[in-house]
# Entry
Amino acid sequence: MTPGARTQAAIELLDEIVAAAASGGAAADTLIARYFATRRYAGSKDRRAVRELVYAAIRQAGPMPVSGRAAMLAVADRDPAVAATFDGAGHGPAPIAPDEPRAEGGVAPGWLVEALTASGLDAARQAALVDRAPLDLRVNSLATTREAVLEQWPEGAATPLAPLGIRLPNGTAVESSDLYRAGLVEVQDEGSQLVGAALNAKPGKWLVDLCAGAGGKTLQLAAAMANQGALLACDIDRARLQKLPPRAERAGASIIESRLLNPGHEAEMLADWAGKADGVLIDAPCSGTGTWRRNPEARWRLTPERLQRLRAMQEQVMAIGAGLVKPGGRMVYIVCSLLDAEGTNQVVAFLARHPGWVAEPIEPAIGTGHGPGRRLDPATHGTDGFFVACLRAPC
# Structure
């Protein structure tokens, strides 16, 4: 592909990504994969170059752009090499006309910037939310040690905060590696590892991962429990939960029971665990503002109305989780969001509704203290953004 053809391909992809963001369609990564699946003529260098153009445009645009061309013109304004490809030659984009619309720059739509600022994030920490994320792994302690993995993966380095984390160069083909196939490592951001460890899982405990998804934190809990005890992984999303059993088998995590829940009937489907769990982990559905480095177009999908629906879901899952915890047991609430509406405010409201419950310190301490919990953010800690709080049930 010529440089112009690469720019035109990026514009076409950006049009699809903008439309999907507006309609709740597929994520950018999925759309890019589909695009090149039907264009076999594009080599690996072409695919990589187009992908870089697409994500440069997404990260640069705060509010959702009116079109893919508007997004790419904003990139061209800063990059003369990209601007030169707008010459109309071959398969390249048409020349730039006077006064064509450009995507508006910034971190996010205005209402979200206001919400982040009100949540205590200054401009520098907001800007870091759309930087490129590192590639982190968690070593499976059921099967090996971090030192042993680093001996076989010398290009990696120990993460600075998580004791089982390894950071690799971006672009490393992890899932095709022998170490991954053998279940020795899992892809997991360092921040996710830190908040997942806040439940302080021990062998022999009865634990519930209430919003398990595909099971990243479930596998982390199973390893910390040394495959001793009971571990229930639940979710209402069949497609995501179905990914857990093969992952557990690969990792040698034998104590996990998966349970698909019907929305609105979670409590009755978990009646056999009511008041019995030593600990419940709630990695609640949220806006994902802390993961924009990985999914920057998610900024365009979030609306005040969707945020309100997510907050209602968070309140519901906390109530369900509280019903599973035994007297004196613990519940850890996590959101990969930096909005106080989903983090500290939710915990404060939960404590007001549940007399006798208390927030207690997370040991060892992680991140920065924030209200009744702790917070991690990309600029300060080099991780994805998270809020986490540990809540103790009355005895």
About this structure: Residues 3-106 form one domain. The first strand starts at residue 135 and ends at 139. The chain has a mean pLDDT of 95.
